[in-house]
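In the laboratory, one determines a bound structure by crystallizing the protein with its ligand and collecting diffraction data. In a computational setting the workflow is compressed into a single prediction: the sequence and the ligand go in, and a structural description comes out. We illustrate the idea with 4-fluoro-L-phenylalanine.
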Amino acid sequence: MAKLAHAQWSSRMTFVLAAAGSAVGLGNIWRFSYMVGENGGAAFVLVYLACVALVGLPILVAEWLIGRRGQKNPIDTMAEQARQNGKPAAWLGIGVSGVLAAFLILSFYSVIGGWSLNYTLGSVIGTFSGGDADSIGGMFSAMLASPGELLGWHTAFMVLVIAIVARGVTKGLESAVRSMMPALVILMLVLVGYGMTTGHFGEAVAFMFRPDWSALSGGVVLAAMGQAFFTLSLGMGIMMAYGSYLGQDVNLISTARTVIILDTVIALLAGLAIFPIVFANGLSPGEGPGLIFVTLPLAFGNMAGGTVLGLIFFLLLTFAALTSAISLLEPTVEVTIQVASGETRQPAVPSGIVPSFDSPTQQAT
Ligand code: PFF
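The predicted complex, in C-alpha cell form:
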C-alpha cells in the first residue's frame, strides 16, 4: 500500500529556529524581569536556572521524543501511545489540557503583545524622548486606564497572529526569525551597555546573582518552575507537535541545549539591562507586569540614538511575541479543524514558524 511519508523539517536549523521562535518571546523579557523583581532577585534567578537545567531540559527532550514517536497531534499522540503501552486512555488528558492551556495563555499574551505594538508606535513618534520616570510611568498608567486603547492594540496584535496562521507557511518568516535572534541579542547587549553607564550596574548584578536565601519560599520555587515551563513553551503540546516532524537522526539533547542556552541568555541579558535602570531611577523592582514598559522607554528616551534603538527594540519584541503567539494559537486551530473534519492527522504545518518542509513524498510501505 502506498502512503504519504511523514513531513519532516527541511534541516536541523529550521527546527531550531521554530523551537526558538516559540520559546523566545515576551516570557524572556517582559515576564522574566518582573518575576525576578517580584520574587526577591537572585534566589529566584538561581532556582529558575536550576529548574531550566534539571527539569526544563529533560521535559523538552521528552516532549520532542513523544512527538517524534507519535507523529500525530498531541492529543492523538498521547491517546495512541497510551493504547500501545497498555495504559489508561485518560493519558490523552495531557494533550487536551495542553491545548486548553495554550489557548488561555494566548488570551493574556496577546494583551501584552498589544502593549508592545503600542510602544513600537510610541517609539516611532518619539513619545519617550527626554521623558523622566514620572512622565513615562504616567503614560503606562494612562494606557492601562483606557479600555478602548487596550482593546484596539490587543485586536491589532490578534489580527496579525490570525493573518499569519491563516495564510499558512510563509518562507519569509524563517529568515526573519534567523535575523531576529542575533538582532535581539545585540540590542540587549546595547541596553546592558547603557545600564553600565547608569552607575547602578553593580547593584543590579548583585540583585540578580547574590542570593538572599531568606527570600526563598515555596511560592518562589513554584514561580521559578512556572517561569521555566513558560519560557521554554513546555506542557502545551507545542514542542510535542514540533517533535512530530523530527527525523531519527536529530540529536535531541544537543538541540535542546542550543535552544535553552539562547532562551536563557536573552532572559539574563534582559535582567541586566532593566535592573540598572530600575535602581538608577528609584523605581521598585517589584513594579509588576509594567516593569519593562516603565524602564526601557526611560533608557531609550535618554540615550543617544534612543529613538531608533527603541523602535528597533519594540519591533523585535513584538516580532518575538508574534512567533510565540502563533505557536500558541496553532493547537487550537488544529483541534478545531480536526473536530470539524473528523480526520486524525499529523498537526498542521505550524504556519509561519515552520517555513520550509521537504514536500511529503509517496513511499511504498
Ligand atoms: N515561551 C514563550 C515566551 O517565553 O514568551 C511563551 C509561550 C509560548 C508559552 C508557547 C507557552 C507556549 F506553549
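The two ends are 6 Å apart (CA to CA). Keep in mind that any predicted model is a hypothesis to be tested, not a measurement.
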